[in-house]
Protein: Delta(3,5)-Delta(2,4)-dienoyl-CoA isomerase, mitochondrial-like
Amino acid sequence: MTSNSVPKFETLVVSNPREYVYRVELNRPHKLNAMNDVFWREISTCFNGIAEDPNCRVVIVTGAGRLFTAGLDLTDSQILAFTDVQKDVARRAMQVFDVIKKLQESFSFIEKCRKPVIAAIHNGCVGGGVDMVAACDIRLCTEDAWFQVKEVDIGVAADVGTLQRLPKIIGNDSLARELVYTARRLPATEAKQLGLVSRIYKDKASMIEGALELASTIASKSPVAIQGSKVNLVYSRDHSVREALEYMAAWNMSMGQTEDIARAIQANMTKQKTTFSKL
Ligand SMILES: CCC/C=C/C=C/C(=O)SCCNC(=O)CCNC(=O)[C@H](O)C(C)(C)COP(=O)(O)OP(=O)(O)OC[C@H]1O[C@@H](n2cnc3c(N)ncnc32)[C@H](O)[C@@H]1OP(=O)(O)O
Structure:
């Protein structure tokens, strides 16, 4: 994937609004960006491509139309595999397992991609939407935003990341359970208090502008430092302090020898701006 030839998708629009910044827009506005089969395939392809694209250092995820996303497409999705009566229970169970693992991967690719991903959320972020933004690095939202862990209302335990990531993001296990068990809508102000989002904007336009500014700031820094930070933050979340410190030291024994350090220090000392070569 290169900035000259950003890929074309059916359910996503990828653009390159600023240097080293890509925007991935969920693009099924007539269905409130509900996540159908094509979406699940494309979001994987998209983030795998971005992971390898040296022209991209930061990603912004937005939703087209009046709502960020209504979550799983309830009319066109692999969830139908759950009720495939042609298969016996063991074969059906294996099929469902494989589908869930594949859909989990779709969002885990966002986390595995070393480039920071900023979710810019307006209006509703429902079900699978919460799974997706929980895999992002930074969440911004509009005043009218609301978040809903909706899965229990469709009779299923959320299975593509919310239960694993949300409690760690908000650091409030009791409230995470309340949100999961009740499927109540969490408004923007409460999401900010909890640390689910870091900033609230008046409307979508000002949020996109804010997201672009933030992305450009991150993109101007050493990609070695930024990507190393993301990898180690994700690792630290899932390991003990001792293990994570060990991993950090092993990481920087090579990455800490980058030419970017000398460039960055020189720029700091001389109060000059500098640029960093592609990673
Ligand atoms: C292995 C699986 C892994 C993933 C699991 C994920 C699970 C989940 O995401 S659970 C949550 C699923 N989503 C929902 O239950 C939300 C359903 N939608 C709504 O409740 C409302 O649409 C909403 C409150 C979001 C907005 O209401 P509003 O009145 O503003 O709009 P509508 O008229 O209802 O919708 C407009 C058109 O969009 C279609 N649509 C909305 N949501 C979905 C959806 N989830 N799947 C498919 N289509 C959806 C709706 O049918 C309307 O279409 P049309 O009739 O053609 O105009």
About this structure: The chain has two domains: 12-219, 223-270. The CA atoms of residues 149 and 180 lie 6 Å apart. Residues 31-32, 34, 70-75, 79, 99-100, 103, 124, 126-128, 150-151, 154, 159-160 surround LH2PNOKW (CB under 6 Å). DSSP finds ten helices and nine strands in the chain.
